[in-house]
């Protein structure tokens, strides 16, 4: 069975691409966003036909949107045939161009009257034909730009330079002409025949402005003729006109200002609401007479007016002129405040007395110049302030009682001693600050009454040393005492002169190391030297073996200890068989 | 008419031609899928094949052509100084072919499927 191969040569090739933005169905939600784009330069296809089709610039929009009928293939074929004909045909193509141009003859006559010499433009109805004409039949005009032909601006000397150009789309792409009138085509700048009437007129107006007169029509006035007049302020500022017309009047304000400047003295007196009203700026609306607390530029509304009224009311009710100033002697509130102050009067007096006494005391101590007395005073003061001190904690919380107690506990000064000391200190220079207070900072004086322990309970757990209670089964052991020496009878250390000799090692365990001579004597022969060296080596070897044995024994001993420890940890008594899980 | 003929099962293309005449002309459609990303390519392939099977079309494929690997080995250093270290870049292009025997109605439905970005789809239509 022979498999039929896929006939690539006669097949049509398409590529799925996104729909172009210029496609008519781009905004249609029901249309697919992908379209099939015809590819002509596919490998394995007819090369000559491809080149002609490329030059013919087959537009893709004819193939982009597939229609619902089944004859789209026929249309494709017709288009291809048309393109071939237009590209390759000579006279037939020219005839087709003439038929298309006949429609624009009337329009062109007007233009010819102005300038003369404008040729007939190509019809925009067939974009393929126009594109092909642009390439196949270059326009022949008398304008200077017409000397350069085509997109590459080759000179017009009858030679076809395009034959040397490589065709576009060598990698499988196809050059497709752009849509008519949808976007800018640079060829329009050089070929006015491709422009329509309006575009040509605009182009001419830009190039020759002196030919055209200025517009003198009142187009916009005519447009607005039927409409009512519009306020310019509304046009400029928009619909921001105030809702209330009662805006501050500038003229009234100026009059008021003049009045105020003239009668300046009337404003100084704090008369009251009436005077305030007279001095207030004028307002057109019936607002509060005392004037608004808000800024004059703020738009007036009901809320603002309400706020002003409330504020004025509060001011009148609570802050009358009688309320301003110091309290009178007859005022009950004054007596009330005074009564409260008198309660604490006694306390304050006591506190002040205490402060005075403290001051005199310190001055006396400084005058005496005794560092010990100063520290004593300070210590007594410190002990009083110490929270651990029992006397303070047991006292009442009432400040007056504590003050009186402290004042009664003054340290009695020895007058004679002070005077004697003063005489001594007169000869000496006055003590510096460090001498008086420095020692206190350096020395740490501890009071055994207050300091119980310098150790923390975190790591120091004092415990009671307990001794085993004596029972009948376990009577306390009595140590026999030698009456002659007043020492325990078992004690033999003093008599022997040493603290108990270690037990003797049995001779079987002793190992006598060989005596080895490590020094070289004079006149040693070679044989003696060899023997000496050998003896040293043997001794070292012996020591090594001993060391190794000791290490092994130590390891085994450690293992046994570990096993015993484990045994003890789980509180399993000896003799009980244990199995490792 | 066209839709009615399109709904007929296309087990044998020639038989379809005989029944419907020129309106149900069968075509050989070869869809070539190319991509650098295998995952998206396989997804599009499976979507196409499942869509074709739903419509009871004769489907062949996907034929997995050998992957083309473009390797570029360049020096890492922008200048010539330093240890000679090299970067090895590669780009793999995967290609799949799917053959269908169906009327031309089906071709336009190819554009309605969701094509993953990076997957290039080419359609070749030949007469049976």
From TrEMBL, chain A:
What Gene Ontology terms describe where this protein resides (cellular component)?
A: cytosol; nucleus; preribosome, small subunit precursor
Q: Which domain of life is it from?
A: Eukaryota
Q: Name one GO biological process term.
A: ribosomal small subunit biogenesis
Q: Where is the composition biased (Low complexity)?
A: 119-139, 273-282, 364-374
Per the UniProt record, one Pfam family is LTV
Q: What InterPro entries would the database entry show?
A: Ltv1
Under what name is this protein listed?
Protein LTV1 homolog
UniProtKB/TrEMBL annotation, chain B:
Q: Which terms are listed as keywords in the entry?
A: Ribonucleoprotein, Ribosomal protein
What InterPro entries does its record include?
Ribosomal_uS10, Ribosomal_uS10_CS, Ribosomal_uS10_dom, Ribosomal_uS10_dom_sf, Ribosomal_uS10_euk/arc
Gene Ontology MF terms in the entry: RNA binding; structural constituent of ribosome
Q: Which residues form the Small ribosomal subunit protein uS10 domain?
A: 30-124
Per the record, its GO cellular-component terms are: small ribosomal subunit
Locate the region Disordered: 1-23
Which one GO biological process term can you cite for this protein?
A: translation
In terms of Pfam families, this protein maps to: Ribosomal_S10
Question: What is this protein called in UniProt?
Answer: Small ribosomal subunit protein uS10 domain-containing protein
Q: Which organism is it from?
A: Vitrella brassicaformis (strain CCMP3155)
């Amino acid at each position: 069975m022979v498999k039929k191969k896929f006939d690539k040569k006669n097949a049509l090739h398409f590529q799925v691409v996104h729909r172009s933005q210029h496609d008519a169905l781009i905004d249609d939600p029901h249309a697919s966003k992908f379209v099939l784009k015809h590819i002509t330069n596919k490998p394995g296809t007819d090369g000559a036909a491809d080149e002609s089709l490329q030059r013919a610039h087959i537009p893709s929009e004819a193939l982009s949107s597939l229609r619902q009928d089944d004859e789209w293939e026929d249309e494709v074929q017709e288009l291809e045939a048309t393109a071939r004909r237009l590209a390759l045909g000579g006279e037939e193509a020219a005839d087709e161009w003439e038929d298309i141009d006949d429609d624009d003859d009337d329009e062109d006559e007007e233009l010819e009257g102005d300038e003369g010499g404008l040729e007939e433009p190509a019809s925009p109805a067939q974009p393929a034909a126009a594109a092909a004409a642009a390439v196949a039949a270059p326009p022949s005009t008398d304008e200077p730009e017409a000397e350069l032909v085509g997109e590459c601006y080759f000179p017009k000397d009858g030679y076809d330079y395009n034959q040397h150009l490589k065709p576009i789309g060598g990698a499988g792409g196809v050059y497709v002409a752009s849509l008519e009138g949808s976007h800018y085509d640079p060829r329009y700048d050089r070929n006015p025949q491709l422009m329509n009437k309006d575009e040509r007129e605009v182009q001419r107006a830009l190039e020759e402005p002196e030919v055209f007169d200025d517009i003198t029509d009142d187009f916009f006035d005519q447009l607005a003729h039927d409409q009512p007049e519009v306020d310019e302020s509304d046009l400029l500022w928009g619909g921001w006109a105030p809702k209330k017309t009662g805006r501050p009047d500038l003229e009234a304000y100026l009059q008021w200002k003049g009045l105020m400047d003239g009668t300046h003295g009337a404003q100084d007196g704090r008369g009251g609401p009436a005077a305030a009203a007279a001095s207030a700026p004028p307002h057109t609306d019936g607002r509060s007479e005392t004037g608004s607390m808000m800024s004059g530029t703020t738009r007036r509304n009901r809320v603002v007016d309400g706020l002003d009224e409330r504020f004025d009311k509060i001011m009148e009710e609570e802050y009358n002129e009688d309320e301003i100033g110091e309290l009178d002697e007859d005022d009950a509130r004054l007596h009330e405040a005074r009564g409260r102050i008198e309660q604490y009067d006694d306390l304050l007096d006591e506190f002040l007395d205490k402060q005075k006494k403290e001051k005199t005391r310190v001055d006396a101590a400084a005058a005496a110049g005794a560092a010990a007395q100063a520290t004593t005073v300070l210590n007594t003061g410190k002990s009083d302030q110490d929270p651990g001190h029992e006397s303070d904690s047991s006292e009442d919380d009432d400040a007056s009682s504590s003050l009186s107690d402290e004042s009664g506990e003054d340290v009695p000064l020895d007058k004679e001693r002070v005077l004697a000391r003063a005489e001594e200190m007169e000869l000496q220079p006055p003590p510096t600050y460090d001498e008086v207070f420095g020692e206190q900072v350096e020395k740490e004086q501890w009071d055994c009454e207050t300091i119980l322990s310098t150790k923390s309970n975190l790591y120091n757990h004092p415990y009671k040393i307990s001794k085993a209670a004596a029972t009948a089964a376990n009577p306390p052991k009595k140590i026999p005492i030698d009456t002659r020496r007043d020492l325990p009878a078992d004690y033999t250390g003093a008599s022997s002169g040493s603290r108990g000799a270690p037990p003797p090692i049995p001779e079987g365990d002793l190992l006598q190391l060989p005596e080895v001579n490590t020094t070289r004597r004079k006149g040693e022969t070679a044989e003696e030297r060899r023997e000496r060296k050998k003896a040293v080596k043997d001794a070292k070897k012996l020591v090594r073996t001993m060391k190794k044995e000791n290490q092994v024994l130590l390891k085994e001993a450690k293992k046994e200890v570990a096993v015993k420890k484990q045994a003890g940890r789980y509180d399993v008594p000896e003799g009980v068989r244990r199995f490792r899980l | 008419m066209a839709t009615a003929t399109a709904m007929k099962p296309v087990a044998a293309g020639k038989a379809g031609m005989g029944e419907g005449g020129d309106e149900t002309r069968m075509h050989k459609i070869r869809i070539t899928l190319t991509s650098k990303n295998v995952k998206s390519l396989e997804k599009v392939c499976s979507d196409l094949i499942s869509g074709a099977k739903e419509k009871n079309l004769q489907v062949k494929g996907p034929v997995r052509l050998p992957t083309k690997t473009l390797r570029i080995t360049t020096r890492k250093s922008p200048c010539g100084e330093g240890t000679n270290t090299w970067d090895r870049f590669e780009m793999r292009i995967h290609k799949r072919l799917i053959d269908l025997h169906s009327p031309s109605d089906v071709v336009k439905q190819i554009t309605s499927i969701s094509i993953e970005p990076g997957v290039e789809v080419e359609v070749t239509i030949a007469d049976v």
